Structure formats: C-alpha cells, structure tokens
C-alpha cells in the first residue's frame, strides 16, 4: 500500500506541474489557435524572477524571507504577462491565421530569450533601453506627420540599424566609464538554485510514506489557478468576451467587442500562467536557460490529448500523463506484475525515465489515431488574418 500511495501521489504531483504549465497553453493555443513555442521560455523567466525575488528577501531574515514565494508568484505573473503583451503586439498579431509562420517566429523568440538570460547584464539593459528610446521616440515624433505612413518602410530600414549602432556605442562607452561589469552577466549559462521557504521543506507523514510540502503546495497552487481561470472565463465580463471571440470572431467584432484587446488580454493571461508555472518548477530543483525546453513538449501533449480549448480535458490529460510517466518510469507496478515474466521484462525495459517518456508518447500517438480531437473535443478557433 505504501508503494502504491507513493506512486499515486508522485503521479498526481507530476500531473499538477504539467497542468500548471499547460494552463497557459490551453488558453493561448486552445482559445486563440496560436502555437507559441516560446511558452517554455516564459516558464523559465518566471523561474528566474522567483530567484531574483528570493535574493531580494534574503536580507530580511526569517520569518519575512520565508514569505518571498507569494511575492514571487505575483512578480512572475506580472513579468511574463507584460512580455506576453509585447510578443502579441509586436509579432503575433501580424501572423494570426498563419500557424507555420507563428510557430517559426515564436521558436525564434524562444532562442532569443534563452540567449538573453545567458547574456543579460547592466550594459545590455542600457543598450536595449537606449535603442527603444531612440527608435520608438523617433517613431512617436514622426508619426504625427500626415505623410508618415508613406515613409514608414524607409523609417524602419534606416532607424533600426542607426538606433542599434548609437545604443551599442553609447552603452559600451558608458559601461566602461562607470564600470558596469561589462563582461559579467547577471545569471550566465549555469543553473540557478531556488531554495524553498523553510515552511515548505518538511514532509507530511502518511502511513509509511511522507508527502513533501513543496509538492503539496504546487498541487494546491494548481487547484487555485484552475478555479481562478474557470471563474474568469465563465463569470467575468472579459471572460465572456474571450469566449465570444473564440466562437465567432467576426460577429463579436460586429457587436462592438474589441477583438484586438481580447487577443492581447488572452495572450497576457496565458503568458502570466506560464510564469506562475515557472515559479512552481523552481521549487523542485535548479533552473537554467534550457528549463523551458524540458516542459514544452509535455505541455503541448496535455493540451492536444485533453482537447483543444477544454479546461477539463487539460486536467484529465495532465493527471493521466503525469501518472503514466511516473508509474512506468519508476516501475511502481512491480508489486502487482512482478510475478508475470513478460510484463516484468516489459516494464524493466521502460523503467528508465527517458524510455518511459518514449512509451508515453507512443501511447499518445496511438490514442490520437482513434480520437484526433482529444478526450473532450471542441471546435477550435481559426483567427482571420
């Protein structure tokens, strides 16, 4: 019983992490039809935000420093939601209805964010700030001219390299003068450790097994997020607008619903949930620039298997995939099937975590052959270009 209880709880905890990571995708991919390959990097940024908040609270000492996790959750949501708005307004809104281009563009953004975390320093922040000030400042001034639309193309061609050159020169000179640690990145390529608060480091005894408080916290956090998203989509005015645009974008626009604002809000919420997922993942182990890549495939599988746009489908799929990953990878069924030679050899072969994931993917592909729309099918949304 203890072995089965351990298998059940660990499978549920893995499923909770997957569900928390997939909630944002269920909104962005399920409701907007956008394949966001940078979703994993938003999780990674949420984890790094948690690390920054933790280091900020450390000098306060206990018990105040133990409360950093609640502020980290808020900060991670805000940071990634704002980045999601920037991505939607700057890239995604030009690619609605073009899934291949969206996939390639967001994949490029994911690579940029990975390198950004490895290289970010004070000088880089100064360079980016100067570039934005020069480019967008010039755009704001020239956009007041009545003939700006005719010269917009030339403006972009000229101002982007000019602003970048000025920002690099001024930023590097300023960094050298004020000794802003030109060659010292904030994080670097190495992993960053995030220590759970003291009150989350213990275990809850349950029979012969102990439940880690950190994983219990993640399960509770996942439940709160699911309830919050359900309430928002079904009980709030903006949730109603999101569901309206999902069902019929053209008719919603005719009824006066600001569809572009709905797109931006939906992407911001999905990205913010990825940041919360990153904060939860940071409690389980070290985080690095490639942290998001470890979850992006599994989270897409959760959304696809559960049914695009169905919250209950994502819940069932996350728990099913999480349980399957742990039970197969840890061979938790050995007390039951250990006496059957054929099954014993089969589970021994797939007991490695990597091979367990291969078997789970095979099962998912087989399942989708019979139910290509997922467990709970629902008509998705094709956004007009």
Distinctive features:
15 helices; 2% strand; 385 residues; disordered C terminus; globular; two-stranded antiparallel ribbon; mainly alpha
Task: Sum this structure up briefly.
With 385 residues, the protein is mainly α. It contains 15 helices and two strands. It folds into two domains: 296 residues, no CATH class; 64 residues, no CATH class.
Structure description:
- The protein has 385 residues and is mainly α.
- Helix content is 71%, strand content 2%.
- It folds into 2 domains: 11-120 and 185-370, no CATH class; 121-184, no CATH class.
- β1 (203-206) and β2 (209-212) form a beta hairpin.
- Pfam families: BPD_transp_2.
- Keywords: Amino-acid transport, Cell membrane, Membrane, Transmembrane, Transmembrane helix, Transport.
- The chain crosses the membrane at residues 12-35, 67-87, 99-117, 123-142, 154-178, 213-233, 265-288, 300-328, 349-370.
Order of secondary-structure elements? HHHHHHEEHHHHHHHHH
Structural class: mainly alpha
- Tell me the major beta sheet: 2 strands, antiparallel
Q: In total, how many beta strands?
A: 2
